[in-house]
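User: Last request for today: this protein with 3,4-dihydroxyphenylalanine, please.
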Amino acid sequence: MLGDLSGLRDRILADLAAASTLEALEALRVSALGKKGSLTAAFSALRDLSPEDKRAAGQEVNAVKLVIEDALAVRSQILNDQALQEQIKAQTLDMTLPPVAMGLGRRHPLSRTLDDIVALFARQGFVLHHGPDVEDDEHNFGALNFPAHHPARQMHDTFYVDQRDANGQPMLLRTHTSCVQIHALKGATLPARILAAGRTYRCDSDQTHTPMFHQVEGVVIEDGITMGHLRGCLETFLANFFERDRVDIRFRPSYFPFTEPSAEVDIRCRRDANGIVIGEGDDWLEVLGCGMIHPHVLTACGLDATRHQGFAFGLGVERLAMLKYGISDLRMFFQNDGRWLGHYGFVG
Ligand code: DAH
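Assistant: Here's the final one, the structure of the complex with 3,4-dihydroxyphenylalanine:
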């Protein structure tokens, strides 16, 4: 028996229009078009008709089926949109609320460390400068005295981007903040105390390397400036940063293309079961690189290298933060784990 087909259609359409959840809609689909559905039953009833009647009735049932399928699709779209809107509403975060004051969040130890470093160097007269994250080869390497094809370039595991500079060289993500000194020194009034702080990138990822990390670079150009001044500047900074009256540091000869002579700086420390204690003990730990600015760098910035001299240093922010706050795994900085931030983050 085919029964009242248009009545069945109207009832199903009314039910679909009234369905208020995706689950209710699915239940209606099954009750109409499922194996034991009302419309499926109408299809089965076609079997009992004569061949002539079957054709006309078949077309009729099919038309109803199409109308119902359309209505199902429309209703499903509406309910999906509503569900999405509700989800968005439930997840809305008022970005204008002061999170720390509301007890909703913590300051990330890296932000805090970066701000502390900048503030401590500001006390020594350094002025903060900014440069782009996407750099050209000349600023990141050439002007910093990395000759073309020099092996020192390979030490940097550079990320290249799909864009070329005016010389046809591929642009890159800066591998250090040293390049900011080139921007800052061009046309600078001397004497100058320049600081750069921010993100740097290298294609490297393991327990002690992340593809993005942070550096601070400092540069001083001043008549009569020597490595002795460099040492004093770093000792003052490190003692303040690690909140000690004084810290012992030692310079180890090293190589960087942009400084000559170059040194790596170690800080006196003690290692015990709880980790590393800075400022006492008989051990040494490398904390940064530095040196006297290479004359080629001064020349590249338009300065007369026979008249001017200066020093530069570069340090890793993650490394200093790990040492100061006893954080053992570098990768935790970037995992955005709320429990970790709750422990290591700062209120205020
Ligand atoms: N640019 C160096 C690096 O990323 C760090 C550095 C070392 C900066 C020595 C300096 C310096 O200015 O003098 O490894």
